[in-house]
Amino acid sequence: MWMPSKSVLSGHISMLSFSILVSVSFVAGSRIANYVEPNAVTFSRFLIALIFISIVLTTQKKWSHSKSLSVWKSAILGSLIAIYFITMFEGLKTASSTSMAVVFTLTPVLAGFFDLFFSGRRMSGKVWTVVLVAAIGALWIIFDGDLGNVRNFNIGYGEKLFFIGCVCHAIYAALIPRFNQGEPAIVQTFGTLSAGVIIVGFFSFNEIRAVPWSDLPFFVFLVIFYLAIFATATSFFLIQYSAVRLSSIKVMAYTYAIPIWVVITEVVFLDISSDHVVLIGAAIISICLSLLLLNRES
């Protein structure tokens, strides 16, 4: 039986790790959405993540690779991912985590389209089918296997705004391999974060300054720290590492595993049991991701 190369396999493992880290950010982010303005949250998490990545680059002595970074390419990637995070937090003010997750399921399909547009890479009908079936599995979990919930789903301001962010995220994933000039993923991550800090800081200076940082509850800082180190610095590295090894549609397909990790977290830490609806959806997603892993196309 055909097995993926070590490079491809490491890309899949990285994206599986990415899905675990990001799953927590949806729940955590919703807890602080009404405490801090989205732009301020995005700036603070980018800044902390940039400091963390800079320390790692120093300890690994990889600063020499940063000479190959393109300012305008980093600016584009930083702008795209900044828009994604800002729209996510802004959307969470009026939209539920469930409806936001529904919108997010469109990201892999969008990534496949932009991958074709930017690089001309065509994925087979088999890959598209697997990704769409995985989307059905994710939606099955999100809507609790009830068609009535689908009919009652309303698209509001928050969902529409987040859709713009998802489009930016899909473009971001498709551009990573095109913009990479052979530099290590952590160096490309440094460039993206640097651009993100400058862009968000410039356009949101007044909002950031107006936040009563000293009056915020301690848990807000804990959430921001998690978002910075794990859901930003680490996840940026993982997605940029994987994007040069896998197609964008496969990279983004791992977002479908996020509902599974949310459920597992609830079972382990909150003692919330899962029903057959969740198990069916999780089984569909797991099978689809396994098929993507074993597919010969990169």
Key features of this structure:
298 residues; mainly alpha
Task: Describe the fold and architecture.
The protein has one domain. With 298 residues, it is mainly alpha-helical. Helix 3 packs antiparallel against helix 8. The chain has 14 helices and no strands. The mean pLDDT is 82. It is 76% helix and 0% strand.
How many extended strands? 0
Low-confidence stretches: none
When the domains are counted, the total is 1
Q: From the helix content, strand content and strand pairing, which structural class follows?
A: mainly alpha
Largest sheet: none
What's the number of helices? 14
Mean pLDDT: 82
Radius of gyration: 19 Å
Terminal-residue CA separation: 17 Å
Outline: globular
Oligomer: single chain
Instruction: Report the portion of residues in β strands.
Output: under 5%
The run of helices and strands is HHHHHHHHHHHHHH
Helix content: over 70%
Write the layout of secondary structure elements.
Blueprint lengths: L5 H27 L5 H23 L10 H21 L5 H8 L2 H13 L5 H18 L4 H5 L5 H23 L5 H19 L1 H6 L7 H26 L4 H6 L4 H12 L6 H19 L4
